[in-house]
Structure formats: structure tokens, C-alpha cells
Design brief:
By secondary structure, this protein is an alpha+beta fold. About 35% of the residues lie in helices and about 15% in strands.
Length: about 500
């Protein structure tokens, strides 16, 4: 690689409070009419004063914990001045000098740590919709509470940029601080990219604004590397600017020159007093953070294959349910929180990590089987996203796994019973009752199987296969097992049937 790429990412996370950061109107404007969720505070009528939403502060503390960050007990707001049509006040209330969240890090699945420089609270601006010769302003989003997470320039590839954004999204959604709806802008990524030859100082950067998908982040970085490389190859300088991303064309386009901090003329916000937190408040909020992706990786590291685990980590309800299946292995552990049902959120143990306790072999087997059912069966269903809202109980799943381990169900029968868990009419039934209704219970009774095997071996239609097996043609055993399955109407355990066939044919 001729040039080394250096990437820093700023992520805006919309906090899922009921009301906005400084006014008492609905914070969730998805599907609402433009300018229907606004107040005099949002559109800056003279004399209107902001009042801080305490719930936003709580969520910011939890977000900091999810990023392994220090929480600053003292923080305050500042005014960030700039003119834009969707910012009625002419300034944005943000935190520049004293942010609430300090340094931290996000660890990627491959173990790479991306440092967090800080994260601060701020209000969002409105939204402009552009037409051919005019633009319309929607202030529904104005005043919604955000935290802006600023990474250190620790990222050096498009793949790591994508993985960082995805892991940050996971951390924020698992911590319960945002809905994480990328389509509706609940999280937006601004990617700063610069190129330089190895060993040389960082080059001039371009900022790609408002990316709202992990794939877009990756593609934008790849495009910018090629664009900036061509400029540098000509001996020219990269313009420091803000650029937009067009997902359809796969290209970035210039929007405006990049502002520096001094351009915003920051000044302390006079209408909002400083935020002063206590250690007790911070600790209480941190206790409310559920298990995070990093916790699940530690818990299931040697149980669920890493590729399967990474697929499931995109779906917090599945990981919650998987944890419930494991929970019974930690009975009597008073140090951790408890969850009474599969619908409950699994709260983390007291302290940073779970107690050093081992899952039993039975629990490991069941968790691995449930994880496989989730990844290969549930997520393959056309309506899998809807099914995530009504998952089976841990008791149902554990019973199903026990039946499969005892070979009471075939792999096909296991899948059939599993999918029936999502049928409203079967919701309250046990795995065994469902298996009986589906007529998929396998026959494991040795005496009954021996009787069926004897019938097959005495069938003239099987005489040639029997002779071939005795002459060393092992593959015909499959035909004979098939005949046993046919005679038992599919209920025979094929493994047990094969064992009995071999014993009788060799006697």
C-alpha cells in the first residue's frame, strides 16, 4: 500500500428518552407529520429557556459505561455558533470544554481496541429536505438528545471502520440508550479520512458526513482512499472539507469547507447550570446496564463457534434468550442480578465481569444447540424479524435440547418442534407435547426396534442387500436402515436401528 490511511469517526447517538433534551415534547418523531413534535424552545421564540432532561443524563452515564469510559462528575454545556436554516437559535447547545464522558475504548471482535477520546451531550438540529429549486425545514428532530462519540484516529482500514461502527451500535443498543434505528438516523457516522506515506505526518483530512449504515461507512472509506490517492499521486494537496456520500453512485461529493473549533465561537451556556454527579449516582446507573456484547463473548467463548456468535450478536433478544438457557447453571450465585423469564433482560453481575464459574457440559451442549437453531433455522425464516418479538421460554428450549440429546427427536424433528414454538396455538405447550402432536418422537425402545429390524431382515426384498453386506459392501447398511425407517413410519432412531442391524447381521 503506497499510502497509509488514518480514520477517526464521530458518531451521533440519539438517546431514547420520552421527551427532548431541553423541552417537554415527544422525542420519537418517526412517522409523524413534519413540524408536529416541536415547542417554543425548539424553534427559539424569544424568552424561552431550556430545561435539562435528567433521563438523558442517566442514559449518557450508561453509554459511557458501555464504552469503558470514565464518567466526569462535573460537566457543563456550551453554545456552538453556526448558521443553518434548520437551527433556529443560530447556535447549538453542546458540550465542548467539559464533556460528561471521558476517555474509553471499544474492543472489536478481533481484539483490536479503538480508543474513545470523549463523548459529549448535545441537542440535534432539524432536518432539511431539498427539492429542485427550494428546501423545506422539519424541526421534529430539533432538540432531540444526542451523545456525540469521538474516536481517536486509531483506525487504518475500511474493514475496521465498518467493524468499529457496528460494535459501537451493538454497545449502545445493548446498553439500552438508543433504539439504534439506522434508517431513521438514530445513529449517524461522520468519518474523517486522511492519507500519508508510511512514517510521514498525518495528511489533510476530509470528513464524510451522516453515513447511516455499516456498509456505507466501508464503501465511503474505500472510495476516499482511491480519490485521495490520485490527488497525492499528482503532487497536489487534499482539500480539507466536508463531503457527502451518495449510496447510489458510490461516490463522495464536496459540500463545504471544514470548520475548525474556533469557527464555532464556543462560549459557556448561560441558561443551564453545570451538571454535578455523585459517585453513588454513577454506580447506580451502571448497575442498570445489561450484559454487553463483550460480556457475551466471554461467557460463550468456548461454547458457541465465533462465527455463529457474531451473527447472533446482531440480535440482542437472541442473546438474552441464550443467556437464559445458560442461567440455570449459575443457580445460587447471589452476586449477579437475576432474570425471572426469557423476556427479562439479563443484568450484569456486580462488578465488571461475571464470577469465574464454569458452565456444565450439559449446559454447553444445550447452548450450542440453541445457538445453532437460532442461526440456521430461525434467522433463515422469511418472518424471522417478527419472530424475535416472541421467543420461546428457556424451559421450552432446554427441554427440546434434552430430547434431542437423548435422541428422542431427529434433527428434522427438532427443527419442526422448534418452529412450532412460534405458533400462537402451541405457545404454552411443552416440547414433548408438541412432538407428540407432530408425531415426530423417535422410537428408542430396544425391544420394539429389534422386532422391526427382524421384520426387515426377513423381508425377501432385502435378501440381496443382506448378502451384499455380508460380502463386505458396507454402504448397503444405509438401504437397510431406510427400510427400518419406512417400516416404523419414520419413528425409529436411525442410529439405534443401525446398531441393531449390524449386531444381527454379524451374528
Amino acid at each position: 500500500m503506497k499510502y497509509e490511511i488514518t480514520i477517526g469517526i464521530e458518531c451521533h447517538v440519539q438517546l431514547k428518552t420520552k421527551t427532548k433534551l431541553f423541552s417537554e415534547v415527544d422525542n420519537d418523531a418517526r412517522g409523524k407529520e413534519p413540524n408536529s413534535c416541536v415547542s417554543p424552545v425548539d424553534y427559539a421564540l424569544p424568552g424561552m429557556l431550556p430545561r435539562l432532561n435528567k433521563e438523558a443524563v442517566r442514559l449518557a452515564v450508561r453509554a459511557g459505561y458501555a464504552m469503558n469510559s470514565e464518567i466526569n462528575l462535573y460537566s457543563r454545556f456550551d453554545r456552538k455558533h453556526y448558521y443553518y436554516p434548520d437551527l433556529p437559535k443560530g447556535y447549538q447547545i453542546s458540550q465542548f470544554y467539559h464533556p460528561i464522558i471521558g476517555a474509553g475504548f471499544i474492543e472489536l471482535p478481533d481484539g483490536t481496541k479503538i480508543r474513545i477520546e470523549h463523548a459529549h451531550m448535545e441537542e440535534d438540529a432539524g432536518k432539511l429536505t431539498h427539492f429542485s429549486n427550494y428546501s423545506l425545514v422539519d424541526l421534529n428532530r430539533a432538540g432531540t438528545p444526542l451523545i456525540e462519540i469521538v474516536s481517536e484516529p486509531d483506525i487504518h482500514s475500511a474493514a475496521h471502520a465498518r467493524d468499529y461502527c457496528k460494535e459501537l451500535w451493538r454497545a449502545m443498543t445493548y446498553a439500552g440508550v438508543t433504539y439504534g434505528d439506522l434508517y431513521n438516523g438514530n445513529m449517524r457516522f461522520d468519518v474523517n479520512i486522511s492519507l500519508a506515506k508510511p512514517g510521514e505526518p498525518l495528511g489533510r483530512r476530509a470528513e464524510i458526513k451522516n453515513l447511516n449504515s455499516f456498509r456505507s461507512v466501508e464503501r465511503a472509506v474505500e472510495y476516499e482512499y482511491e480519490r485521495q490517492s490520485k490527488i497525492l499521486d499528482k503532487g497536489e494537496r487534499v482539500v480539507q472539507e466536508t463531503r457527502g456520500w451518495n449510496d447510489a453512485t458510490g461516490k463522495t461529493t464536496s459540500q463545504r469547507s471544514k470548520e475548525e473549533a474556533q469557527d464555532y465561537r464556543y462560549m459557556p451556556e448561560p441558561d443551564i447550570p453545570p451538571i454535578r454527579l455523585t459517585d453513588e449516582f454513577v454506580k447506580e446507573e451502571q448497575k442498570k446496564v445489561p450484559l454487553l456484547p463483550s460480556d457475551y463473548r466471554k461467557l460463550f467463548k468456548d461454547v458457541v463457534p465465533s462465527d455463529t456468535l457474531e451473527v447472533l450478536l446482531d440480535y440482542q433478544p437472541l442473546m438474552d434468550c441464550l443467556w437464559q438457557c445458560a442461567d440455570s447453571s449459575f443457580e445460587g450465585d447471589t452476586e449477579r442480578g437475576s432474570a425471572s423469564s426469557s423476556a427479562a433482560r439479563p443484568w450484569r453481575w456486580a462488578g465488571r465481569t461475571r464470577p469465574e464459574k464454569e458452565l456444565s457440559d450439559i449446559a454447553k451442549s444445550q447452548i450450542k444447540r440453541v445457538a445453532n437453531l437460532f442461526s440456521s433455522v430461525l434467522l433463515a425464516e422469511e418472518k424471522s424479524y417478527e419472530m424475535l418479538n416472541d421467543l420461546p421460554s428457556a424451559a421450552q428450549l432446554n427441554e427440546l435440547c434434552t430430547m434431542a440429546d437423548k435422541q428422542e427427536l431427529s434433527s428434522t424433528g427438532t427443527k419442526e418442534v422448534f418452529l412450532k414454538f412460534f405458533d400462537p396455538q402451541m405457545k404454552e405447550k411443552s416440547a414433548k407435547d408438541i412432538a407428540k402432536e407432530l408425531n415426530v418422537l423417535q422410537e428408542n425402545d430396544t425391544a420394539a426396534l429389534e422386532k422391526i429390524v427382524d421384520e426387515v431382515l426377513n423381508d425377501p426384498a432385502c435378501s440381496k442387500a443382506i448378502e451384499d453386506f455380508k460380502n463386505g459392501q458396507e454402504k448397503v447398511i444405509g438401504f437397510l436402515v431406510g427400510q427400518v425407517m419406512k417400516a416404523s413410519k419414520g419413528k425409529a432412531n436411525p442410529g439405534a436401528a443401525q446398531q441393531i442391524l449390524r449386531a444381527k447381521l454379524k451374528s
